[in-house]
Automatic annotation (TrEMBL):
Name of the protein described by the UniProt record: GTPase Der
Binding site for GTP 2: 185-192, 232-236, 297-300
Source species taxonomy: Bacteria, Bacillati, Bacillota, Clostridia, Peptostreptococcales
Domain EngA-type G per the UniProt entry, residue ranges: 6-170, 179-354
Family matches, as HAMAP family: GTPase_Der
CDD domains noted in UniProt: EngA1, EngA2
Gene that encodes the chain: der
Signal peptide boundaries: none
Source species of the chain: Intestinibacter bartlettii
Listed InterPro entries: G_ENGA, GTP-bd, GTPase_Der, KH_dom-like, KH_dom-like_a/b, P-loop_NTPase, Small_GTP-bd
Amino acid sequence: MSDNRPIVAVVGRPNVGKSTLFNKLAGKRISIVEDTPGVTRDRIFAEVEWLNKYFTLIDTGGIEKDNGDVILSQMRNQAMLAVDMAHIIIFVVDGKAGLTAADKEVAQILRKTNKPVLLAVNKIDSINQMDNIYDFYELGLGNPYAISSANSMGLGDLLDEVVENFPKGLNTEYDEDIIRVAITGKPNAGKSSILNNILGENRVIVSPIAGTTRDAIDTYFEKDGQQYLLIDTAGIRRKSKVYERVEKFSVIRSMSAVERADVVLIVIDATEGVTEQDTKVAGIAHDEGKGCIFIVNKWDLIEKDNKTLGNYTKEIREKFPFMMYAPVLFVSALTNQRMNKILETVDYVASEHAKRVSTSALNDVIGEAVMLNQPPSDKGRRLKIYYGSQTGTKPPKFTLFINDKQLTHFSYQRYLENKIRENFGFEGTSVQFEYREKNKRR
């Protein structure tokens, strides 16, 4: 499951500056950077370009000895999985702290991979510290690269070597034909389980501890010729519960994940029902004009009769009256119930989100709608719609040329939207309207 892009993994023991390096190479703050070992717990993906070549960069949790801690153990497994996936490995060590026993253990693991390993000695912030790199020759991984992630020193030479080591036959071109899907919702609603089920492998840490997935995790894969980018986000919590600085970064990242998605899966815990938190997540997705699908997870845990499904759907429609367009899927990531419907619905909603209709067909529908129900009037003046045109996609945007903006009314816009949907669909996506006054006398 890959878009055949070169994959570069950034690994090393905790707190050597892996995430700082990752963020610098990615060109934006994606990984959480906090001076606390173990903050980056899952693998984080980003697309990076150097010398007109694109590759996928993975940040990882630190590789540590397995001491029985459930999170540390899974961090180590995730880092090892990233190493297995990668074509090239950047092994980051701390030039200020010097060579450690933990560095030697990691080097021993990496030598067994038989993959290109580039040794990056980080925190070499000035020429006076260059002598600090020589101890690292002992690791037997070739010439060390002296870098300072914080000051962007030495990164060009490191990236030159990364690109030089790309295996032949991989795709380094940029491809826009990718459906970007953000998986959002409350903590422990089952977002990571859904992602793992879709991918068919244990790609994201899944644990019953709330807040386990702190970062947004990008996963590229392909199915039936369609490329996807799945973004598993940290759960968006109520602001009153966002105490830690690290937690605040996660909330911001969840919102930014929605911003860069084409389709947003709003995961609801069936055992809890629709909560205030769910309405906030959905509101963000709706306001951003994204394709939206409600995923009611843990459906296997609900006692059912012949009215359960209808009642639950009715509750969602009542709680989200502004999102009547969004499909609702009832699934169980645990038992695989209806999980095959998710990607099928994502494909459909993505195509609706990008749909464009002809100006003539649109105006036929608008003309018929106006004949059936005249626009509102105010003090003897009636709204006139001269013509309309679709002026955007993702989300679909319609510009209506009219006589006076002050005569527009939300209820009539809703009526026009319903008529447009009846004729053209646009299921799963909001539609937007813009009004322009034509030939207004001044």
